[in-house]
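SAMPLE LOG
Freezer: B-3
Tube label: C17
Construct: single chain, 228 aa
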Amino acid sequence: MESAFKGFGPKAIPFLKALDFHQSREWFLENRDLFEQELRDPMGDLVDTLTERFSAAGLGLRGDRKKSLFRINRDVRFAKDKRPYNRHLSAILSPDGSKAEQGVFYVHIGLEGCFAGVAWWQPEAALLMAIRRSIAAQPDRFRAMVAALKKKGLELDTEGGMKRTPRGFEHVGDVDLVAAIRNRHFVVRHVIDPNGIHGPELVDELVDFTLGARPLLDWGRAIEATRG
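STRUCTURE (predicted):
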């Protein structure tokens, strides 16, 4: 297909460095063609290609080359940091192709690093409660998911958890279950070598990662499907 991902341009990261240095609308408009050629269009191609590959693999994740991309412009309305542009470009693929769903794939190309993630990211209160109840009531299912991830070299992110166990779960005593119940999100990450973003091989790398993270998707989807 015409939109098959061929790689990000050789100037993708240098463009982000220059944009971060200038942080100027005038500079960005002067260099918009470079942004589109090196970063935006390849990211759109990557979303299209992954949508096709994820569909073939039965992963239940899809995207849109325009709607799936996050803006390079920062939302500074309520931010102390008023710099107008992000230091990265990113995109999300989800069950329905929107950014509102849970159980998603995320890819991030930026100055602070390049990585992908599969996540139930800060789910709304009802779903988060259902996840926590499932961990407490069905610990074997949770541990089987964690073990399946570990076989693929993946571990749940432990950053951002609550310092105290949420109310209603004080009876849970096992250390691993307590840590999981304190989580605000459930995510596994894959670090991408910045030198490896310039060729089509990145697609296979990301598909392999997402297949490895499938136990997390399936576990969350089962909870989502049965919650009241």
